[in-house]
# Entry
Amino acid sequence: MSVFKPSRRDLFSMAAAMPALALPVAARADLGAPAKGNPSHFSFSLGDAKLTVVSDGRLETPAEGLGINADPSEVQAFLKSYFLSTETNYAHTNHIVIELGEAKVLVDVGSGTRFLPTAGDLMGNLESAGIDAGEITHVIITHAHPDHIWGIRDDFDEAILPDAAYFIGQSERDFWMQDGLATSVPTELQQFVVGAVNSIEVDGADWTLLSHEKEVAPGIRVIDTPGHTPGHLSVVVESGGQQLIALGDSMNHAYMNFAHPDWYNNFDMDGDKTVATRKRLLDMAVADRMAVLGYHFPFPGVGHVMKEGDAYRFVPAMWQW
# Structure
C-alpha cells in the first residue's frame, strides 16, 4: 500500500491553479454565487439533540482525482450526467456541532489559515450561528488531513479552543506520529505530515485516544471507518431512537460514492479498505434508517441512504423551518 496517492498538482498547487480551473460557461447551467453570500449554518433536531451544521468554506481540487480506479471516460460521463464539472471538484466543508445533555461537541476544526484560501471560516461562522466557541466541551477529530485538523492552532500556535477536551483515534495518532514518516513520503507531501504532527502536538490540547465504539459523551460515540486514512473515525449521534452518522471523509462525494461505491479517490490512502468501509456504512445506514452527514457533500450535507440494486442513492433531508 502506498502511503499517499495525491500528486503534487492535486495538493500543493491547488490554490495557484484555481483561477485556471474555471469552467467554460457553456459547459452546463451553472448557478452563480450571490453577491452577499449565503447562510453558513443549518440547524435541526434528532431526538433530544440539537445539531447545527456549520461551514468552514469550500475546497476546489482537480476532478481527475475522483474515481481513479475507474475508466476516466466513465468518470467524466458520470460527472456530466450529474451536471458537475469534469475539471474541478467543488467540495463543501460541513462541520457539525452536537448539543446533547451537558455536552456541546464539535466534529473537526477545519483548515484555519494554513491551508487553502477558500476555507478557514469555521470560527467566524460559529459566531454567525450563535454558537459561543468557548462553550464547546468536546472536539472530535475524524482524521488528521489539513481541512479537518489544521484549524486547531491559533495565530500563536496554541489550541484555538483551550477549554475543550480533544479526542482522536489511537490508530490515527499512531500513524501520523510514527518516526520517519515525513522522510518516507515524497518531498511535496511532507507538509501534510508536518502539519498533522504540529496540530496533534499543539499547546493546550490534551488528547484522549479513541477506538471503535468508544463513547465520548452520552449518546455520542465513534466507530472505526478506516481507508481514507488508517485511523479514520466517524461519529454516531443517538437520541430518542434516532441515529445520525457524521461520516467525515469515509464518504466524500454525495453522488459518486453512492452510485459507484467501488470507485475511490486519490485522497483515499487505502482504496480497497475505503471501499469496504463505505459499503459497510451504506448498508448500516440503510438497515437502521440512519441519517448521514457528509463533510464534503453539498451544504448542509444531511440526508439518508436508499438502496438501488447493487448501488445506493443519497436522499437529501427535507429542510424544516
The chain has one domain: 39-316.
